[in-house]
Amino acid sequence: MDQTGPVKSGIVLGAVLGVTVFLVAGGASAPTPSQMSVVTAPTLQRVAQHMTTAPRPPPQKWGAVAPATPADLDFATASAVPRVDIPEAPAAGPRLLAPLLLVAGGVAMMAAGVLRFWGTRRAPQSQLEPLAMAAVTGAPDGEVSRRAALAGAVLASGLTTGAPAQAVPLKPLGDSIEALITEKIVDGSLGISVPEILRLVLHDTLTFDLATKTGGFGGSIRFPEELGRPENVGLAPVVSKLEALQKELQEATGVNLSFTDTVAFAGQMILAQDFKATLCSRVGACDVVYNGYGNKPKRLPLGRQDFPSPDPEGRIPWTGSSVEDFKQAFKGIGLTAKDLCTCASGLLEDPEAGEALLMTDKQCAGILKDLEKSKQTTTRTTYEVTLFNAYTRLVNVARIDPKAYA
User: Fold this and answer.
1) Residue 69, Cα to own-chain centre: how many angstroms?
2) Where are the alpha helices (DSSP H) in 254-361?
3) How far is CA 150 from the centre of its chain?
4) Second label for 118, Cα 20 to 30 Å away, from 76, 164, 219, 383?
5) Secondary structure of 40-88 in the HEC alphabet?
6) Spatial CA neighbour of 399 closest among 154, 132, 207
7) Does the pLDDT value for residue 42 go beyond 70?
């Protein structure tokens, strides 16, 4: 932003005001030649001569009237000469006021500009302002902005929509976590599929409710009370594997890693390795091609906090729910219909059943066809990038403490 604007405006405003006052107050008080009586030199000479040389008549008795003399007539003629008007000097106040106003106006506005500049430097912009703007403007396809609901979540319950500033350098920790998880995925010991991790993350995150300020991605799905609910049937083995992974990561890193961070990082690495394996099945020189053209995720933040108790039930769309129910659930956490379609394999216990359900909706059917075209390409960029982004938003509907591992 150009901070010199107020200064320039102040100088122009002061100049205009000063000139105006000068013309109206100062200029108007000075008489013009047409307003002054003109006395010629000969006339002044005649008046002076008459006053010094003309004889005066003798004193008259009271009540008598002396006859007029030529000298008297001459004096009368001289007296008829127009009076000399010497104009007063115009008042100094208005003339001096003009330049003073010019300077004062410029100085005042320059000061305002400096204060405004200092204020913008010192007052930090709220990180929620862009989200509030997105909530007002909405999304091009008529849905709420992707960040709109998350903005409400942040305001209502302290959830964060993105990576916060880390208080300690966590890159080495993140590198270690990713490396250990990747090793277990590649050797097959982790044993969790893409549909399984998507379903677990969805069922943990979709419990968020803005009205009551509860739920969200907090790892509460690990509690037996939640695992026993109908919509979570079949997820208990997945939770057990992730809890075992959590302990291994804690021992290897010496950090009390949360279950929620474990799930978030494990899911991202599961997606990444699945995408890499698909690419390698289509090309030779796998590592070279993947390093050059493969779709890779961005590093997730660390510090997600585990919820201490189960989330309320009845918030997860499940078997018997309509496509609109799923759309509204995704919309409630700031995700779109396209995000819903990329997560189709994790909506229901049977991965194919979720996609079949979405195909009954005209909008979702069109999105799924476009995603399928992307899946047929070598790099599958549209599909993979969309799924990476949707997953990142899901696991960031969480309470994140940047100092959790300090």
Assistant:
1) 99
2) 259-280, 286-293, 323-331, 337-342, 351-358
3) 15
4) 164
5) CHHHHHHHHHHHHHCCCCCCCCCCCCCCCCHHHHHHHHHHCCCCCCCCC
6) 154
7) no
Residue 213: pLDDT band with limits 50, 70, 90? confident
What would the pLDDT profile of 64-120 be if each residue is shown by its tens digit? 344 444 343 333 333 333 443 434 444 445 455 555 655 665 565 565 554 444 443
pLDDT in tens, 158-191: 454 444 434 445 789 999 999 999 999 999 999 9
Taking residue 398's Cβ as centre, other Cβ atoms within 10 Å add up to 28
Report yes or no: 385 and 269 within 8 Å, Cβ to Cβ.
no
Q: Per the structure block, which two tokens stand in for 60?
A: 């008259």
Q: Would you state the pLDDT for residue 256?
A: 96
Buried b (16+ CB within 10 A) or exposed e, 287-321: eebbeeebbebeebbbbbbbbeebbeeebbbbeeb
Given a cut of 80, is residue 384 above it in pLDDT?
Answer: yes
Tokens of 255: 């950090």
DSSP 3-state assignment of 269?
A: helix
Closest CA to 264 of 167, 172, 158, 174: 174
**Rounded to an integer, what distance in angstroms lies between the CA atom of residue 178 and that of residue 257?**
13
The full length of the chain comes to: 406
Please check whether residue 41 is in contact with residue 53, taking contact to mean a CB–CB distance below 8 angstroms.
no
Query: Is the confidence at residue 253, as pLDDT, over 80?
Result: yes
Angle of CA points 299, 302, 305, to nearest 5°: 140
The three-state secondary structure class of 213 is: coil
311 and 220 in contact (C-beta within 8 Å)?
Answer: yes
Q: Are 397 and 159 in contact (CB under 8 A)?
A: yes
In terms of pLDDT, which residue wins out, 206 or 104?
206
Q: Which amino acid is at 401?
A: D
CA-to-CA separations, 155 to 125, 244, 332, 401, in angstroms, rounded: 15, 34, 14, 16
Contacts of residue 139, defined as CB under 8 A and 6 or more positions apart, other chains included, come to 145, 146, 336
Q: Is 343 exposed, middle or buried (0-12, 13-18, 19+ CB in 10 A)?
A: buried
Return the number of other C-beta atoms located less than 10 Å from residue 383's C-beta: 21
* CA 272 – CA 291 distance, rounded (Å): 12
